[in-house]
Write a structure and sequence with these properties.
Helices cover about 35% and strands about 20% of the residues. By secondary structure, it is α+β, with helices and mostly antiparallel strands. The longest helix has 23 residues.
Length: about 650
């Protein structure tokens, strides 16, 4: 149960010198426009398919109408469960990114109509939770896990989780339109939280059971400058592991404090535990906090947890959360294949966490993990058409497994618990915002995608363009056009796979670790490729139209697991570039699970533009074996699939 504040509370202060240092900053989404190619197709799909589909589902399921009922604008009862508000907020966030990619006046107007409903549903003091608002004046009953009164059952209630997604949607909408109508709703709610929860006498101590508010408060702080939002986020982090409030939930559901990352104070945590999405949202917030202030205890804890998650508990897809029970991390090296959970939301959370780790450290390994998840664990969670999804992402399938859908091993257009479709809806259109970063006057290229970007380096406007057929080819052309000749460093991440490293650590390794040197041409002339800590460093006077041509060798590689992963002993996986491949029954006489790969087996890539949205398939030199990208499986109905092959 919620308690009043104990007599002690650890509150860390910002280090002013730390705050004044130059930080790594992503180049804003509005300044990066994709052009013809792999990611442009998917950004357009988000605009034309994914977001409209999600909005329609939110309407048909009553999720949107809940706000009208709570606001007294319609008659009815609450539809769904305690976290349905969040689904609507996430789709609004995604729609705001769509507006940043390409302005659509109809979508803008539609969002304003939704915001009117949100504002109507908000109670006078700022509280916003349609389940409680609707039911308090009718039956007085609630979804049992919401608790009998505000914030009374924080281990299960999603009051704070929901409004966290509200804040993220509000910031995205404000950045897209400059309008404050949704931002004002978020600020009113955040001010209510600041008054209600905290270390002062009479305030409540609430430790969110489903983290997200911690991320959102930091984001709202960045937009508004209100330090009390940052302080409240830190309070939520620091109050973990200090009470017995989880007892009731533990008794009824056999899920203890570690499920909520509440087993000990955060600064003493060293392992990735519990519900994988909740955990990684907490870890994302801590990593983000470290971009703002120096906290050695946070730093020690978050790096130890990252090592544990990445080196011992991550699937080759970048998916995490092996256990269906609790959607949770399992013990180290326990990574089953056919009953892997690897929730799509957990893949997205893994990317968010690794991106914040990168921003706080500048280390390329975090973007290496990000890229692995991006092309495999994340894209695997959505159909190539952008309107069907997996909640669970196994490493193998017999074609009939029930993946939380009730309809067998097939992608679904929606789920009763729709966190995954709505999470895809918000991440997919935001992807261009992860391509670039700046660090003082340094320009950093972290991902390869055809695009045109506008940014400022050392007070000089610079236009940057990428031309590439990545991930199918390793040739990248970067055109640098400063407004006037300017000397600045330009750093380009060389993916770990191009240097013979499958993933940071030794959980997965290439059998052949040899790699060809990266080839670099500047204005047609060969340039020495100086690679430091994963980045190609180029410092020179840049002038309009300078061209960098980068060639990354893309051999087909076989991957083996650490010997401690018992399920993969004697097996190999196949990759090319950042893309993991699988065998699907459709291409292999209905049989995928029986395929064996010999040590002399080689594969040849063939691009097939009319297959599964346009993909490189891999054709074997021996036998009739065809492999497709893992992300593209189950787009032709349920059938056998496997990533790991018995080695002859």
């Amino acid at each position: 149960m919620t308690k009043y504040i104990p007599f002690f509370c650890l509150i860390f202060c910002c280090n002013l010198l730390f705050a004044q240092e130059t930080k790594i900053a992503p180049v804003h989404l509005k300044n990066v426009k994709t052009s013809q190619g792999f990611w442009h197709d998917r950004v357009q799909s988000a605009q034309n398919v994914t977001i409209p589909h999600a909005l329609q589902q939110c309407e048909e399921s009553g999720r949107i109408n809940n706000f009208a009922v709570a606001g007294g604008l319609a008659k009815g009862k609450f539809e769904g469960v305690r976290f349905n508000d969040s689904d609507v907020f996430k789709v609004v966030e995604g729609a705001a990114y769509v507006l940043q990619n390409h302005y659509d006046p109809k979508l803008d107007h539609y969002l304003d109509s939704l915001i009117t409903l949100f504002a109507a549903a908000q109670e006078p003091d700022g509280y916003l939770y349609t389940l409680r608002t609707i039911n308090k004046d009718t039956t007085g009953s609630y979804d049992w896990i919401a608790g009998p009164y505000r914030y009374s059952f924080e281990n299960g209630s999603h009051e704070l989780y929901n409004v966290g997604h509200l804040y993220e949607a509000a910031v995205a909408h404000y950045e897209a339109t400059g309008k404050k109508n949704l931002l004002n709703v978020a600020i009113k709610n955040a001010d209510h939280l600041v008054k209600t929860i905290g270390p002062k006498p009479g305030q409540l101590v609430v430790v969110p059971g489903h983290e997200e508010i911690e991320i959102a408060l930091i984001r709202l702080y960045r937009t508004t400058g209100k330090k009390e939002y940052l302080d409240l986020s830190r309070f939520f982090i620091d109050m973990r592991g200090r009470s017995d409030k989880r007892t009731l939930f533990l008794d009824e559901h056999k899920l203890g404090p570690s499920y909520f990352q509440d087993q000990v104070p955060f600064v003493r945590q060293r392992e990735a535990v519990g519900h994988a999405v909740r955990a990684q949202y907490l870890y994302t917030a801590v990593a983000d906090m470290l971009t703002l202030e120096n906290n050695p205890q946070y730093n020690t804890a978050i790096h130890a947890i990252w090592d544990d998650a990445t080196y011992k508990k991550q699937y080759i897809t970048g998916g995490v959360g092996a256990r269906e029970d609790g959607e949770a991390f399992d013990k180290e090296y326990v990574l089953p294949n056919d009953n892997a959970y690897a929730e799509t939301c957990a893949a997205i959370a893994n990317m968010l966490w690794n991106h914040k780790m990168y921003l706080s450290t500048g280390e390329a390994k975090y973007m290496d993990v990000f890229e692995r998840v991006l092309y495999n664990g994340f894209l695997g969670g959505m159909s190539v058409n952008g309107d069907k999804y997996f909640y669970v992402n196994p490493m193998a399938s017999n074609g009939v497994n029930d993946f939380k859908s009730g309809h067998g091993a097939e992608r679904q257009s929606w789920f009763g618990t729709a966190c995954c479709p709505t999470n895809v809806s918000r991440f997919l259109p935001s992807m261009p915002g992860y391509i670039y970063a700046t660090h003082g006057n340094e320009l950093i290229v972290n991902l390869f995608a055809a695009n045109e970007a506008s940014l400022t380096v050392g007070n000089v406007p610079v236009k940057l363009a990428q031309q590439t057929n990545y991930p199918w080819e390793g040739n990248i052309k970067i055109i640098v056009s400063p407004e006037k000749p300017t000397n600045f460093p330009l750093s380009i991440r060389i993916p770990g796979w191009a240097a013979g490293e499958a993933i940071p650590g030794n959980l997965y390794t290439y059998q052949d670790k040899l790699s060809k040197p990266v080839t670099v041409l500047i204005n047609g002339k060969k340039s020495d490729a100086t690679i430091e800590k994963g980045y190609l460093k180029l410092t020179r006077p840049w002038k309009k139209g300078d061209v960098i041509e980068l060639t990354l060798d893309m051999p087909v590689r076989t991957v083996v697991s650490n010997e401690n992963v018992k399920t993969n002993q004697g097996k190999v996986a196949i990759e090319r570039g950042p893309v993991l491949y699988c065998a699907e029954g459709h291409d292999n006489d209905g049989k995928a699970l029986a395929i064996r790969v010999s040590g002399t087996q080689s594969f040849v890539p063939q691009f097939q533009k009319d297959l599964l949205g346009g993909i490189n398939v891999l054709k074997a030199n021996e036998g009739n074996i065809t492999l497709i990208p893992y992300y593209a499986w189950a787009n032709r109905g349920a059938n056998e699939m496997t990533i790991w092959f018995d080695a002859k």
